């Protein structure tokens, strides 16, 4: 039995199961370079404000390297979005089975 459909880890925008600098780079590539979209848009919304924008990779980097506020749930474990009314999709989820 795996995680429920749509489960993800917030901040893990590249879907590699680790929240690190590569996620911020991935999100910046999507936002500003026309690179591929995250498999789960909600996972890229690191600050959980319901929008994908420059604040998301900055929030993640601040948390990772400067001791900033923790990434909102679902983090650090896989789970469903407690604020699922934001319009960002995560139909397939990104958690391993």
TL;DR of this structure?
With 97 residues, the protein is an all-alpha fold. It is built from three helices and no strands.
How does this structure look, described?
This protein has 97 residues and is mainly alpha-helical. It has helices at 21-32, 41-44, 55-66. Helix 1 packs antiparallel against helix 3 (55-66). The longest helix is centred in the N-terminal third of the chain and has 12 residues, at 21-32. The N and C termini lie close together (7 Å).
SSE layout and pairing:
Blueprint: H1 21-32, H2 41-44, H3 55-66
Fraction of helical residues:
25-40%
Distance between the termini: 7 Å
Which shape, going by the Cα principal axes? globular
User: Approximately what portion of the residues adopt beta-strand conformation?
Assistant: under 5%
* Topology pattern, helix = H, strand = E: HHH
Uncertain segments are: none
**Helix count, per DSSP?**
3
The radius of gyration computed from the alpha-carbon positions, rounded to a whole number of angstroms, is 12 Å
Q: Largest beta sheet, briefly? A: none
> Averaged pLDDT, please?
90
Would you count the extended β strands for me?
A: 0
> What structural class should be given to the helix and strand makeup?
mainly alpha
Oligomer: single chain
């Amino acid at each position: 039995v795996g995680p429920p459909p749509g489960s993800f880890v917030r901040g893990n925008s590249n879907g590699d199961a680790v929240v690190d600098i590569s996620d911020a780079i991935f999100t910046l590539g999507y936002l500003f370079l026309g690179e591929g979209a995250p498999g789960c848009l909600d996972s890229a919304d690191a600050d959980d404000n319901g929008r994908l924008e420059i604040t998301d990779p900055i929030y993640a980097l601040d948390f990772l390297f400067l001791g900033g506020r923790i990434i909102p749930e679902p983090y650090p474990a896989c789970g469903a979005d407690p604020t699922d009314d934001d319009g960002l999709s995560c139909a397939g989820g990104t958690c391993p089975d």
